[in-house]
Amino acid sequence: MEINGRKIGEGSPAYIIAEMSANHAGDMNRALEIIHAAKEAGADCVKIQTYTPDTITLKCDNPYFTIESGTWEKQNLYELYGKAYTPWEWQPRLMEEAKKLGIEFFSTPFDLTAVKFLEDMGVASYKIASFEVTDIPLIKAVAKTGKPIIMSVGMATKEEVDEAVKTVRDCGNDSLALLKCSSVYPAIPDDMNLRMIPKLKEMYSLPAGLSDHSMGHTAALTAVAIGADIIEKHFCISREIENPDASFSMEADEFAEMVKAIRDAERALGKPEFSLSEAEKNSRKLRKSIFVSADIKKGDVLSTENIRVVRPGAGLHPRYYEKLLGLKASRDIAFGTPFEADMAEGFSE
User: Fold this and answer.
1) Long-range contact list for 198-203, CB < 8 A, 24+ apart?
2) Disulfide: which of 56, 86, 202, 290 matches 315 by Cβ 3.0-4.6 Å?
3) Do 181 and 156 touch, CB atoms closer than 8 A?
4) CATH of 278-343 given 3.90.1210.10, 3.20.20.140, 3.40.50.2300, 3.40.50.170
5) Which residue has the higher pLDDT, 69 or 44?
6) What is the structure's pLDDT at 247?
7) How far is 130 from 132, CA to CA, in rounded Å?
């Protein structure tokens, strides 16, 4: 698929997303700083989230609304989202700044009012979060915009992914990519199951990648090595700035290191074909060939005493060595001369 002319999928570099989420910690200037830092760190895109506590949950103290374990253990959902959300009045300004810097900008909507808001803003693409993969009305609304969708499928069963993908396609939208995701914060390697990335590509004939909540960039780099088309990482200025996402987010210098490692890995992966780099073409000159290893007079018999297979590669190919043994020299040849076909009587390649 394409986002604003940037191809995403087989044959294209991995599309790297810096997820701001709550890392602005309630400060719009810091949100702007994150956009600048993401651009400088090499991200292709910066992503935010569009919700308010009232659009994503209920203001309710029932036990259902309390998180039982993990990073946000015992926190009430409404209160947590009140700390984490990105004020909607900031978002057009953030998008404008991203456009000015030349970095893509899009968002994850969490309800239909957010979709309308983002449409009015003119975003070029959308993200569906892993927790919303079963929100079929939301997926329909996003799909009907006709814009590219990146959908995380953490926690989802095959049947749920089937339904979500079918929903998008039934709306006439074929611009979809899927992200493998371990919806735990932070994620640990044991739970990541990265081999599902190529499987998702095969099953749905779609680009696929990784929404990575683990620490470091081992998982992201591994994902690219096995075919990930997209990498998404939570991005912050500093984990010391307190907010709900800080503990599992990547700082700017770490993100830049990850981007460099991914781009290096992509270059190293190359193409599944026999080909030579310019450096290798030069190195070929140092491969072995047949050389004269002692002075030879015309008529001398060629033997292991006067010709050898050695480096460099200026002489006859080593495949002919045994064929030359026992033939007579056609002329005088000095020690250190590359052996050529016409130097042996009766020889032909």
Assistant:
1) 198/226, 198/227, 200/153, 200/161, 201/227, 201/229
2) 290
3) no
4) 3.90.1210.10
5) 44
6) 85
7) 5
Token pair 């002319």 is found at: 5
pLDDT score, position 79: 94
- Write the burial class of residue 68 (CB in 10 Å: 0-12 exposed, 13-18 middle, 19+ buried): exposed
C-alpha closest to that of 150 among 38, 9, 5: 9
d(CA 24, CA 47): 12
**Positive or negative, the Cα torsion across 291, 294, 299, 302?**
negative
Q: Using CB atoms within 10 Å of the CB of residue 177, give its burial: 0 to 12 exposed, 13 to 18 middle, 19+ buried.
A: buried
- Between CA 198 and CA 243 the distance in angstroms is 34
DSSP E strands, the chain: 2-3, 6-7, 15-19, 45-50, 104-109, 126-128, 149-152, 176-181, 208-212, 230-236, 250-251, 289-292, 307-310
Instruction: Kindly state the DSSP code that residue 89 receives in the 8-state scheme.
Output: G
The rounded percent of the chain whose pLDDT value lies above 70 is: 99
**Span 11-269: which CATH code?**
3.20.20.70
Contacts of 218 (CB under 8 A, 6+ apart): 189
Q: What does the pLDDT read at residue 144?
A: 98
Token couple for 160: 């749920």
When pLDDT is averaged across residues 143-168 and rounded to a whole number, the result is 97
Contact 51, 109 (CB under 8 A): yes
The structural domains of the chain, with segments of one domain joined by +, span: 11-269, 278-343
Q: What is the pLDDT of residue 231?
A: 98
Token digits of residue 340: 């050529």
* Confidence label for 164 from pLDDT (cuts 50, 70 and 90): very high
pLDDT of residue 97: 98
- d(Cα 344, Cα 327) in Å, to the nearest integer? 6
In angstroms, the CA 112 to CA 130 distance is 17
Phi, then psi, of 105 in degrees rounded to 5: -140, 130
pLDDT tens, position by position, 283-318: 999 999 999 999 999 999 999 999 999 999 999 999
* DSSP labels, 242-293: -STTGGGPEEHHHHHHHHHHHHHHHHHH--SS----HHHHHHGGGS-EEEE-
